[in-house]
Predict the 3D structure of the following.
Amino acid sequence: MLKRLVTSLGFVGVLLLAAPSVSNAQMPDKPEGKAMTVSGTVIDLSCKFAFNLSGADHRMCSQVCADAGVPLAILGDDGTLYLPVSTGMPGGSENAKLKPHAEHKVKVTGTVFEAGGAMAIQIESVSM
C-alpha cells in the first residue's frame, strides 16, 4: 500500500513538473509586426458598420459607445481597418487612447501586424 502511494505521488509530481513546459509549448508565437505610422479616422465599429454612422455629428455618440465598451478602431485613409490590440495585459482596451480622437483624422504610431485575417495595431501614440 505504501509503495503504491509513493509511486502515485511520484507520478503526480512528474506531471506537475511537466505541466508548465506543456502549456508553454502550446502558447502561440507572438505575431511579428512592423513599426508604422497609420493615417486615418478613429471610428466606432458598431455604428460605422451596423448603421453607417460617422463624422462630426456622430462624435459624441462614438464616445458614449466607447465608454460602454464598444471598440474604437482606425479606418486608414487607404480603406484598411486597423483593430487596436493591447500592448499590456491581454484583453485590455485601447479605447482610452482613441476616445479623445473619436471621428477625427489622426496619425497613429505603433506595431502593425496581420492577425486572423485582419490588421491589428499595438498603439504607441496618437496625434491629430
The mean pLDDT is 82. The chain has one domain: 34-127. Residues 34-127 form a domain with the OB fold (Dihydrolipoamide Acetyltransferase, E2P) fold (CATH 2.40.50.500). Strands lie at 34-44, 72-76, 81-84, 105-115, 118-127.
